[in-house]
Amino acid sequence: MSLRHYSITAADTSAVPGALSNSAQQQGCGVANSPHVIDNAVGASVPDADLGDAVCIVHQANRSGSPGEVVLGAKVDKLSADVGAVKAKLDQLSVMMVGIKAGQNNVVHRNMNGNSRMAEHNLQPLKAEEGEHVGEYPTQPDLFPATLGALFSLNNPQLDKLEEFYNCEFKGTSIAAWQSAFTAFIGALSARP
Questions:
Q1: Which residues neighbour 96 within 8 Å (Cβ) at sequence distance 6 or greater?
Q2: What's the confidence (pLDDT) of residue 110?
Q3: Nearest to 134 by CA among 172, 173, 106
Q4: Mean pLDDT estimate for the chain
Q5: Are 125 and 138 in contact (CB under 8 A)?
Q6: Nearest 10 degrees: CA dihedral of 191, 124, 129, 174?
Q7: What is the Cα–Cα distance from 24 to 63, expressed in whole angstroms?
Q8: Pairs from 125-132 (Cβ < 8 Å, separation ≥ 24)
Q9: Which of 9-18, 89-98, 99-108, 158-167 has the lowest mean pLDDT?
């Protein structure tokens, strides 16, 4: 979406697409006896598609010299800020939805991990449900333990990396307790081999 700076004068009414629609002309928004410049008007930096009949309002405010232009400018500024806030909220909701979908996907993987009974049984990696990697599987080689036996061989640096990836703290006062917390997080049995 491009932004353009428009100037309407008595000689040039086609400078703004849709600036003088039929309804605008009927309301007396056509160019009158003197040139009307809206270079400094509020609508001057509004995207083409959003201008519409707003140019007519700015045109009238500029022609009358009334404080309406200032009021209109404040309203446009507030509207722009509100649109920005809505877009930011939509971005947050989008990330939240990715996390919810990852959580739903992880139910199957946690159930599969819960069936792991022996050290050589394969584990199913989980998607991150929050944080920087939301919706992603671990891609770093050997980050997620391949088997139940490998899970109980995890050391402090490996568990630190898993906590960072999943944006989740696996609490424990010992390495065994820390491993058990991760085991519970992925849905595997907590009984050690």
A1: none
A2: 92
A3: 106
A4: 73
A5: yes
A6: 30
A7: 15
A8: 126/102, 126/166, 126/185, 126/186, 127/102, 128/102, 128/165, 128/166, 128/167, 129/99, 129/102, 129/103, 129/166, 130/99, 130/167, 130/168, 131/165, 131/166, 131/167, 131/168, 132/167
A9: 9-18
Q: In which residue are the tokens 């109980």 written?
A: 152
- CB distance 102 to 129 below 8 Å: yes
Say what the pTM is: 0.55
Q: Which amino acid is at 16?
A: V
Separation between Cα atoms, residue 147 and residue 169, nearest integer Å: 21
Token pair, residue 144, equals: 């997620």
Question: Encoding tokens for residue 120?
Answer: 């050589």
Q: DSSP for 150-184, please give it.
A: HHTT--HHHHHHHHHHHT-----SSHHHHHHHHHH
Whose CA is closest to 184, among 110, 125, 118, 102? 110
User: pLDDT tens across 88-145, in order?
Assistant: 899 888 888 988 998 899 999 999 998 888 888 889 999 999 989 999 999 877 899 9
